DNA sequence: TGAAATTAGTTGCATAACTAACTATATGCC
DNA sequence: GGCATATAGTTAGTTATGCAACTAATTTCA
């Protein structure tokens, strides 16, 4: 097997493994230490709703890169915690609009601050150009595979 | 909130989300299409055993960036499929050495080929320098957080 | 108009993740 | 030697993921 091919295989564990896991774990830990009872997956849904409220579940699938059953269950759990509410769309009765509650709106600033702090910790020694390269590579990877 | 800080928060979804998910999903799909019944998580354990056989569970934790309960259950499932076997270490009876079976050895070439193909698809339009940057950023992120 | 195809969302089943609490063995140290 | 501490691994409980199969509403088009 040619050497440069093997190196590509190795890249799998880099792209898929340690960094994303480490960041997610740290952010989750920071939420917990701040007394916030939400998971990072739930937070990623709230994050998109803070940017634009009352999205359909399908739209949340697109924006969070999750499949429909995952979103169904994340919304189930967020609804149990009274952070979002499903409302049937009047135009298309197949659609559930997922809207934030006041309780969820109160979480926005504190959790985004924690996310910013976490990313600052994570990115010590990484410069802007490198960050741009990572983003562009990941966008290319995503586009190549979907 | 200053603009550049907010952008760092956004990076979370880039580092954690779409690319790693897309690569993992594609590799899993390629395994399935080739009639291979293993998950990518199981494969990532086998991958390290192909590099060095008969590692302790703790050593597999370190190398795969997983915690102990995760490795316990991955090994449980790999053992059910008769791909690895636990053997108590003679030097330290707390330690389980996890060793490959012949069946697992037979999977090495085909699955590493599939991983290489998948990464080649994923990395179309990405050059070597960019790959090196991603690897170095991820190593820095991991080191910063652990 | 009405049957076929598409779209939105849910449910069941298997695997995997994290935390916390647990058992068993080994090591350190007085 | 013997008790405290550390290390290796397991178990229980909750959440999340992927796939396949499902229901319900909407759109397409003959």
From TrEMBL, chains A, B:
InterPro entries: HTH_MarR-typ, MarR/SlyA-like, WH-like_DNA-bd_sf, WH_DNA-bd_sf. GO terms for molecular function: DNA binding; DNA-binding transcription factor activity. Residues 8-143 form the HTH marR-type domain. GO terms for biological process: response to stress. It comes from the Bacteria. The keyword Heme does not apply. SMART domains: HTH_MARR. The keyword Transcription regulation applies. Keywords: DNA-binding, Transcription, Transcription regulation. Pfam families: MarR (PF01047). This is MarR family transcriptional regulator. It comes from Sediminibacterium goheungense.
